[in-house]
Amino acid sequence: MKSNRVAVLSKWTKTKVLLQNKSIKPFIPDTRKFNMNNLRTMIHQYKMVYVKPECGTHGKGVIRAEMIDEYSYKYQINENILKFKTFSEFHKSLVKQIKKRRYLIQKGIHLLKQNHRRFDIRVMVQVNPKGRWETTGIIGRLGHARKIVTNYHSEGKPMSIESLLHNHLSRSQQTQLHKKLSSLGIQIASHLSKTYPKFRQIGVDIGLDKTITPQIIEVNTQPDPYIFNQLKDKSMYRRVMSCRRATVKK
Ligand SMILES: Nc1ncnc2c1ncn2[C@@H]1O[C@H](COP(=O)(O)OP(=O)(O)O)[C@@H](O)[C@H]1O
Ligand SMILES: [Mg+2]
């Protein structure tokens, strides 16, 4: 079914639409609604999960939860770490954090690090002046040392992906990854625009662990273009902004 929406806030809705596409599906980490059963199953299966607001932004309210051993659990929200001796205490405390809000649980990705800080990647995809989807920017975001999110609004630092990946990948592997992310971004945008033909830009958050398989953390329908202005090299920023102007003129 088509929708006239220009933005979608629910990460659950967007995930369900993306899962319809067989070639995108392998890049989506297991994501389920927050409830006790799903929490128990997922934390035992994956050992580390992210528990996050269905409609959150800026990394607010995002929780990183871990099973330490058979009997103990911990989670981190903002800079606070809490530990528990039983699953039921762990669950009860999470429910207290969540209150009445809708939350999701997602398989945790052990994000690559630089100087003990986690980083992920934002892929900006926009409709270009020719009316085609184009990947206009790919940027890394290095999280704050004591935080579990990488968002700019949670003190993450936008950086070129070369500066973050050079310790993990060779030049030619970086080029390969760049191509892969660029085409995955276009695939995601094209697929979403079948349901949401009014979309003109998306920002895909991609997580990488040591296997370097891209994992789609979330898709933003109102991506912040200004993180690209944080780099010394302004060429990507100019490209992003020229697509925005083209969109506004239409
Ligand atoms: N499944 C996950 N594995 C690892 N890190 C994650 C996961 N989900 C979220 N994060 C981290 O938290 C940040 C914020 O989560 P995200 O789902 O993008 O919500 P928001 O809308 O608040 O940006 C991500 O950029 C990433 O750094
Ligand atoms: Mg995000």
Automatic annotation (TrEMBL):
<dbReference type="Pfam" id="PF14398">
    <property type="entry name" value="ATPgrasp_YheCD"/>
</dbReference>
<protein>
    <recommendedName>
        <fullName>YheC/D like ATP-grasp</fullName>
    </recommendedName>
</protein>
<dbReference type="InterPro" id="IPR026838">
    <property type="entry name" value="YheC/D"/>
</dbReference>
